[in-house]
Each structure stands twice: as structure tokens, then as C-alpha cells.
Amino acid sequence: MRSWVAAIVGLACVLAAPEVLAQGMPRTADGHPDFQGVWDRHTQTLLERPPELTALIVPTDMAQETALKLLKGREVAIGGTPIENQPARTLNRVNGEFRSSQIIDPADGKLPYTDAGKALAEKSRVEWRSRPDSYEQRRTQERCITGAGRTPLAIMPELMLSRFVQTRDHLVIQTEHTGDLRIIPFASKHSSAAITSWRGDSIARWEGDTLVVETVNFRDDLGSMGMVERREAKVTEWFALVAVDELLYRFTVDDPLVYARPWMAEYTMRRSGQPIYENACHEGNHAIANILAGARADDRKEEAAKQRPKR
Q1: CB-based burial of residue 137 (10 Å sphere; 0-12 exposed, 13-18 middle, 19+ buried)?
Q2: For the residues of 137-183, what is the DSSP string, one character each?
Q3: Residue 186, strand partner residues
Q4: Helix, coil or strand: residue 288
Q5: Can you tell me the distance from the alpha carbon of 256 to that of 57, in angstroms, rounded to the nearest whole number?
Q6: What is the pLDDT of residues 254-304, one digit of tens each?
Q7: DSSP class of residue 309?
Q8: Cα–Cα distance measured from residue 112 to residue 106, given in angstroms and rounded to the nearest whole number
Q9: SS3 assignment, position 285
């Protein structure tokens, strides 16, 4: 509990940082901080801290070496194939400090799973690695339903851009990966809990110069960062300009069944002059059909083996 209280205090201090921008803060016509534009979150910092790293802060002289080791580990994890699309070669940096994980609370940088949460996460991972009976057993990212633009926003190893558009009534976040689009109203209450979606139901509000987004009513799924998302979960996001070209993004996840306590993560995004391109996920994508065809071929091989006379 003490570390959670300390994190909340730290949140208040960090999110007060936009005041130091004084007259230099870009603002919209209605006086709020202007987040509009394209933001880059292209780094190697993972959600959870890797086992070989013990501290949140990585010394500057070790940051690039650490990032390259993480990149190599990710290449091995996907079968030795190099990650395409300009893989990140640096760690995320917050307050000038390189970070070993996005999670800042708990202090060990790990998801605080309950026993039930561990079982749900493992069940989902086993199903994903197993021979599928249906396309519904493949992850939503693989089916081009959701990507890194769902709630909360994920850091991906490849080039990752999001465009922010603000009006008086809505915040829009368009993420290049899988073409994710979040249209978030400034509202005082959520839609009916009977209506769930892959991205959940988000509403926004301003707290001073900090934009706060609260999301509920998810569909049960294993999210883009490997964390369990359930319809009972609540994700709260904070967006704050800490420099004209630097946006601090912080979020908490609260789901008592899956996590022993609410947990908190943060990272920074930087303004980018690069354009966002269409991510035509299903254009020429034969993966799902081939995965299912391969599984059925394995089924036939096993059935044929059973029919062979035993010696």
C-alpha cells in the first residue's frame, strides 16, 4: 500500500510539470494543452522488467547495449527472424532517465497477478500456442481486429506512430499499427455496461492541464502487451505535456480478480514529423487460412497414425 500511495504522490508531482512550460505550452482555441500531431513511441522498453535487469533506471552508458540485447531477445523469441520496419535501438527515457520497464509500481516492474490471473494468462497463452480449431482461437492482433492502439497504448518494437486530434467534445487517437482508431468523448459517464468492445468504453476529462481518460467495459481478451483484459477491468490514462515535443503517458490497471493490486506504468512519446501510412493488415494476408490448414493437416496425420496396424 505504501508504494501505491507514493506512486500517486509522484504522479501529482510529475503531472504538475507542464507548469514549467509557462507561456511556451501550445494550446488549443479553448485553452487546453494542444496534443495534436503525430507522436512516436518507438523504443525497446517492455511493459514488464526483463529478468536480467533489477533496477528501473538503466545507466546512460549501458542504455544502448541493453536495448540491443532486448532487440536480440525479441528476434530469438519470434524464431530468429529480424523484426522489420526499423527496430528500435534505444530504451524509453522519462525525466532524462532510461527505463528498464514501463511498469513503475510495483517496484519490481512485474505484473502483480493473483493466482486466478496467472491461470487466465497462462490459459490464453497455451491456447495461442496450441493447434487451433477456429480463427477465434487466434489473438485479435493476428486477426487484424486490434493492434497497439487499444487501451492502454502499447510500445511496439517496430516504428510506432499515433496521431492525436482534439476538438472541444472529442479526443481522437489514430495508431498506425492495425489502423486502430479511438474516438473518445469528453463525457461524465460511460455507456451501458451491457455493451462491451475490444477497445472498451473510454471517456475523457481535463484535470488542469492533464488529460485523463477512463476506460471500462472491455471484452475478455489477452491484450496487446500480454496482459489480461476483462470486462470488469478499469484502465485510467493520463496525458501531460512535459515539454513542447515530449508527452508523458501514464496509466493504471485495476482488476481485483486478475491483479492483487492496481498497477501503474509510464513512458514518454516524442513528436514526429513522419507521416502515418495505411496498415493494410489483411491485404494479401494468408496467415489465418494457412494456420488453420496446417492444423487440419496435423489432425489428419495423427488420425492416419492411429489407423496404422500396431507391430
Answers
A1: middle
A2: GS-TTTTTS--TTSSSPPP-SS--EEEEEE-SSEEEEEESGGG-EEE
A3: 204
A4: helix
A5: 28
A6: 999 999 999 999 999 999 988 888 877 766 667 778 888 888 898 899 888
A7: P
A8: 7
A9: coil
Backbone angles phi, psi at 164, to 5 degrees: -105, 135
29/155 Cα distance (integer angstroms): 31
CA distance 145 to 126: 20
Sequence letter at residue 182: R
Cα radius of gyration rounded to whole Å, the chain: 21
How far is Cα 216 from Cα 234, in angstroms, rounded to an integer?
5
Q: Are 127 and 142 in contact (CB under 8 A)?
A: no
Compare 235 and 67 and report the one with higher pLDDT.
Answer: 235
Q: Which of 218, 204, 209 is nearest to 253 (CA)?
A: 218
* Cα(281)–Cα(50) distance, integer angstroms: 29
Q: Decide if 38 contacts 271 (C-beta within 8 A).
A: yes
Using an 8 Å Cβ cutoff, are 133 and 291 in contact?
Answer: no
Q: Does the predicted TM-score (pTM) go above 0.85? A: no
Closest C-alpha to 185, from 207, 202, 165, 162: 202
Quote the CA–CA distance of 141 and 177 in Å, as a whole number: 9
Determine the Cα–Cα distance for residues 98 and 90; give it in Å rounded to an integer: 9
Grid cell locating 13: 508531482
Burial zone of 304 (CB within 10 Å; 0-12 exposed, 13-18 middle, 19+ buried) = exposed
Extract the C-alpha cell encoding 235.
484502465
